[in-house]
């Protein structure tokens, strides 16, 4: 349970009642200090320690209300006493610990009238009531200020938690957006690759046919070159051709070639008296002689 030190409460009360203590003798000031100290101790630890904080504060506010009414209207008989059987008084004055003691110190005394119990205020104790009222007000004000100060970090922590949650949400949304963009890019790349693969499959047979056509043309050119090389210039014959050469248009036909053999008739060589057979049978043919 949150409590305020007696020193802080005393300082606040002293500032509030500074004017009332001016002009008093030393004995009077000492008595006033003792009275204030007694009221403070009746509050804390007298009321604050044994009761829940919420109930203790509600009891103090009830006592403060009784004092306010008497200070504002001291001659009003309605405010000069309260029934102990009243439900509100029962819950906030009679049942809580320490509150009746504080009321008695303010100047209220128990009495019975027509078999009805009351707490009646003694007008001669007005000065005590004012001192007790000042102590109550200062304590309640300090408690409220303390709660307000304690509420500031709580609000700050709540704001930090909200900000953190917002950051997490934004990061999640950014991650989803990045993933979606990456998926879209991969989908586009797959579509491009598929389109390129289809185009390559369509053009491959054409390129293959073109390559085969080029190879066939090269082979035909090579065959033509070989044919040109094998042809004997000026003869109309080519190597390996045993048949007669075809006559060229516009030119006289070539005489048939003559092949000699050993069975042919001897042909005399002019001016030598010898034949080809004789020449071939000799190791060295004789020199030609003039006729």
Automatic annotation (TrEMBL):
It holds the Pfam family PUB. Residues 194-213 have a biased composition (Low complexity). Residues 1-23, 194-291 are annotated as: Disordered. Residues 55-130 form the PUB domain. This is PUB domain-containing protein. It comes from Dendrothele bispora (strain CBS 962.96).
